Amino acid sequence: MRVARALDAYLRHITIERGLSEHTVAAYRRDLGGYVEWLEDDGIVDTSEVDAAVIARFIAERSSAEPPPAATSLARLQSSVRGWHRFLAREGIEGDDPSGRLRPPKAPRRLPKALTIEQVERLLAAPSPEEPIGIRDRALLELLYATGARVSEAVGLDVDDLAHGDVLRLRGKGSKERIVPIGSYARTAVDAYLTRVRPSLAAQGRASARLFLGARGAPLSRQSAWLVIRAAADRAQITAEVSPHTLRHSFATHLLQGGADVRVVQELLGHASVATTQIYTHVSVDTLRDVYATSHPRAR
User: Fold this and answer.
1) Given this model, what pLDDT does residue 111 score?
2) Catalytic annotation on 193?
3) Label partner for 40 (CA 20 to 30 A): which of 91, 147, 177, 235?
4) Separation between Cα atoms, residue 277 and residue 268, nearest integer Å
């Protein structure tokens, strides 16, 4: 099958049959689009012409690019390539999977970056309580920290997802749903937004069930939510890097430091494996180091 046609078939498969999110499908399209372009530039126009040597050469070229790609990016690229070829073999489009022996690079284990509780409080207090958009932004930030939701999950919330009082329904990766508690501070902030701000925002555009709306009434995008977080960090004069995942990392870290069981945190975060959650337990090493440095007579 022609490589471009085979790519279209795979993207339809992961969109319709596997139900992957728009963001995930876009990442596959980006990675595999570059791979297909490389194949065509190399004179390979049919998937039957791809063998293990071709894939290895592609990965080697990408690995040696300048600047060198991050190990995580290279691992994701290899995963995309493997998934595509595995699909072609499974569907009988090709006789075998030439990527079967491809091994991803070992990604460095990075500790998540979390804010201190004092920094979080400054961040949450940063939006102006006198401005409608500030009230919305405060509600968004409070909800992210109170629930550990991914930004994509937060902007994907409908108003009806709040209908259960002190709990919230989130839709995670693969459209998996989970129920998480929402604390009193976040609930108060969200209620203020719902009663004082959202009706006027909704009147600006077409009717939408989404909880968080933009200034023109359209659903708030992931990019806009990122800008909300960045602006709040600037206003709070937080010099540490603050990304869309920072409040999620801080949520998990502060729960574990407060004595929460790692498996409870796993459920709250929506991790499929507890191994993913356990990386947060290593953050407390910094606390141990600080205590040791200030308490042991020969630590310095």
Assistant:
1) 59
2) no
3) 91
4) 10
3-class secondary structure, 29: helix
| Alpha-helical runs (H) found in 13-157 | 22-41, 52-63, 71-90, 117-125, 132-147, 151-155
Return d(Cα 135, Cα 232) in angstroms, integer. Answer: 12
DSSP 256-293: HHTT--HHHHHHHHT-SSHHHHHGGGGGHHHHHHHHHH
Question: Rounded CA gap, 292 and 297, in Å?
Answer: 9
CB 31 within 8 A of CB 73: no
Residues 210 and 202: their CA atoms lie apart, in Å, by 10
Marked catalytic residue, from 136, 138, 150, 187? 150
Q: Is 254 a catalytic residue?
A: no
Dump the DSSP string for 231-247: HHHHHTT--S---TTHH
| pTM beyond 0.85, yes or no | no
Q: Reply yes or no on whether 150 is catalytic.
A: yes
**Smallest Cα–Cα separation from 155: which of 140, 165, 169?**
140
CB 242 within 8 A of CB 115: yes
Say how far apart CA 151 and CA 143 lie, in whole Å: 10
Task: Say which of 76, 138, 248, 249 is annotated catalytic.
Answer: 248
Task: State how far the Cα of 218 lies from the Cα of 201, in Å rounded to an integer.
Answer: 8
In DSSP terms, 189 is beta-bridged to none
Read off the tokens for 90. 């499974």
What residues of the chain score a pLDDT lower than 50? none
pLDDT for the residue numbered 104: 59
Does the annotation mark 173 as catalytic? yes
